[in-house]
């Protein structure tokens, strides 16, 4: 009997990872099909926890539905781009017009496009560690090399500009800054951002500033738009509707180019070519942008004391503070907590095995720390989107599992925990 040859995937995917929706998430879906209720904390998806997009945004799309039946300009509809310009101007960013704004199918698409228009074989991009892993994956897919600069737990997950400067080589083309940060929730202080801006200008690097969580800050954390500090090189600010406006499914993001945009005409033309090849982004949802940016900013109530996101964050901070095993740098922004496990209490802790055990035994899905391109194995990320009561229950389950670990010593073999635990099927 003739054996059919297997279909091999592209070699370009060999080093591409996105574990947030990887094998743990697939196992969670299997358990759900078997009837188990899984608390999925691996993804920041507001709708899954009862958040709604502001009604005014939904009405804006309905009222303009007849205008959304055809293709639009490859950069996006003018009212959406102009609204982005006005937001940037209100924040102190100068020299930006609608011509420097690209609307995409979420920031995810734009991350791919801005890198594809830039990179040649072997070009390097400085990416934070931990990072949102799409940045590393997109650099790799577009023939570049992601060079990770450390944002160390002991430094509050804030990068050291001097350490970062030592990573710059003649092949370095750009630096990625994620602020407020995913996965850590760190909000970078102004002096650090100023130092990064001067480094980029001195070395001629493009700055990609991922600011999708720009209005999600807590207590006295100050969000500083990086474009207000970058003047003598090109700065691309990326943001969108998904998080602040709880509209993930709308798939609307934007990239705004400021700084030395006049010296980047060829690059921006190449980016427009790529935008043209996909014709345009989702037209209907673009009609929500002007209303979103110009209307009432309901996110402010959610992140203030008494607000849903604020109280959920406070529940996580309290639970980790009271834990024998857990350590947390309280997130200053975004919708995540990057929780550390004290290896003095659990010397052989392995984040991937822990995430599997937590899923199989406690039906809670988290993202292991190694998913975010870090060299250590004692962190995991949870979203702060559930209400405080659910999060208190989750952390009781986590504490129970870690207590079991402490009472039954575990051994490592080849970097993996081999104590009798449930394995993937």
Essential attributes:
425 residues; Aspartate Aminotransferase, domain 1; Aspartate Aminotransferase, domain 2; 2 domains; 7-stranded mixed sheet; 4-stranded antiparallel sheet; 14 helices; 15 strands; 16% strand; disordered C terminus
What structural class should be given to the helix and strand makeup?
alpha/beta
Largest sheet: 7 strands, mixed
Helix content: 25-40%
In angstroms, what is the radius of gyration?
22 Å
Number of domains: 2
| Reported CATH architecture of the largest domain | 3-Layer(aba) Sandwich
Helical element count?
14
Low-confidence stretches: 412-425
The run of helices and strands is HEHHEHEHEHEHEEEHHHHHEEHEEEHEE
Q: Separation of termini?
A: 29 Å
**The CATH H-level homologous superfamily of the largest domain:** Type I PLP-dependent aspartate aminotransferase-like (Major domain)
Description:
- The protein has 425 residues and is α/β, with parallel strands linked by helices.
- It has 2 domains: 11-51 and 301-417, Alpha-Beta Complex (Aspartate Aminotransferase, domain 1), CATH 3.90.1150; 55-294, Aspartate Aminotransferase, domain 2 (3-Layer(aba) Sandwich).
- It has 14 helices and 15 strands.
- The protein has helices spanning 23-33, 55-63, 78-90, 106-116, 133-141, 161-165, 190-203, 265-277, 283-286, 289-294, 299-302, 308-322, 351-362, 388-407; strands at residues 39-40, 101-104, 124-129, 145-150, 172-178, 206-210, 234-240, 253-259, 326-328, 336-341, 364-365, 367-368, 379-383, 412-413, 416-417.
- Strands 2-8-7-6-5-3-4 form a 7-stranded mixed beta sheet, sandwiched between helices.
- Helix 1 runs parallel beside helix 13.
- Residues 412-425 have low confidence and may be disordered.
